[in-house]
Amino acid sequence: MQESRKRAHLLGFIQHGVNSHATGMWRHPKDKVGWNYARPAYWQHLARTMERGMFDAMFIADELAPYNTFANSSEETVKWAVQCPTHEPSTIVPIITGATRHLGVGLTLSTAFEHPYSMCRRLSSLDHLSEGRIAWNIVSSYSKSEWEAYGAETSERSSRYDRLEEYMELSYKLWDSWEPDAIVADKASGIYADPAKVHEVVHEGRFYRCRGRHFVAPSPQGRPVLWQAGSSDQGRDFAAKHAEAIFAVHPGVARMRQHSDDMNERLQGKFDRPKGAVKLIYGVQPIVGSSRAEAQEKQAFIRELVPQSGALALISGHFGLDFSKYPLDQAIQDIEIFGIQGMYESIVHSRGGGAVTVAEAAEIYGLQFSMPQLVGTAADIADQMETFLDEGGADGFMLLATYTPGCFEEFVDLVVPEMQRRGRLRTHYSGSTLREHLMEA
Length: 441
Ligand SMILES: Cc1cc2nc3c(=O)[nH]c(=O)nc-3n(C[C@H](O)[C@H](O)[C@H](O)COP(=O)(O)O)c2cc1C
Description:
Layout: E1 9-15, H1 40-52, E2 57-61, H2 75-79, H3 93-98, E3 104-110, H4 116-129, E4 134-139, H5 144-149, H6 157-175, E5 183-186, E6 191-193, E7 201-204, E8 209-212, E9 225-228, H7 233-242, E10 245-248, H8 253-271, E11 279-288, H9 292-304, H10 308-319, H11 341-348, H12 358-368, E12 373-376, H13 378-390, E13 396-400, H14 406-421, H15 434-439
Parallel strand pairs: 1-2, 1-13, 2-3, 3-4, 4-9, 9-10, 10-11, 11-12, 11-13
Antiparallel strand pairs: 5-6, 7-8
Flavin mononucleotide is lined by residues 61-63, 108, 110, 139-142, 157, 229-232, 234-235, 247-249, 283, 340-343.
């Protein structure tokens, strides 16, 4: 019975750019009316809206360069604003946390081109400035455009995960290197910190070397909440070993359940961590209306906004396959791809086992990132969320935007009270850090 009263963790999925995930979002007549995504006021408003809705965090996705897999060019990406332009994500964190008291921020930062030493320094600094409200979405750059932009050779999935493993080993050494009572701050003697308690990190690994003390005093959470969204076999093992929360996408409840069971088995069977140690957050795209008919009208309208070429550039970038070389009516195959395996599989399975053509894949992905669309009244949406919580094993939801800030305002005004009435969402924040909020049952 306890499972049936589980409360949902909510996160708002966005990017520091003109568009976030739904391709064509910026064209919507209600998108960013009176707001400039590149200015602080927009982020302050979005943050306050999510905090009003008792969200755990705003979750900022990121990639490091415009996709260029489609026809070996970033032309379509730029033309249709396919997650482009995208500004640097950590720059907006203090604006978001400065405008709120409880809302956390999930920050996507790639390990591919940054040494763990500066990564840990940045994340510890942000944990201080946010008073303990930072999560790090650990990614390793899957897209060829990112490697080319940094002038580097692309690397295969297995070597990306090998490097990541060592990245984490060194990161833990840095974050754990200051003992809690290292800072003395004794004005009379002039001693600020006891060097015996600020341990120098010496690391000589296969991929990284480091000799130095962590430059930042221990932060409120000690280290950011560790988040992961890889869902290949290696990605799931990495998450079961290191993460405190995952983000995954599945087209329906049956595959969510499989993922939830799989993660819990890995946790217990391979890594000696208890069931539930990793919060399972699944993506959904809510489209709420005052009636079902109104919601369905909104859904149809949004679908019309997705430009096919832009969506093809998006799936080419995300999956690492150049879809300019495939006929639009060709069925996509269940194969191992270079890019985001979990997203690819959710597209392959989006018709319940039926064939999905390239054109359909572009439409589904361009619109909803292969997440389930929850369309209807607030009660309809709450019903579906309850099903995912109880039958899919979800601990919460990453909400994919349709237009901003409006879709989050509508969700908070309509769906949040319904979820609260059902006892499925907190009515107040009880902790102070993001980790405390996320770990609440
Ligand atoms: C729902 C979801 C969201 C993701 N968001 C990002 C992102 O914002 N930036 C990024 O570089 N990678 C992102 N990824 C990629 C993964 O974190 C991971 O690096 C990639 O999926 C390759 O690992 P995998 O093959 O194990 O899935 C995302 C993946 C998923 C499934």
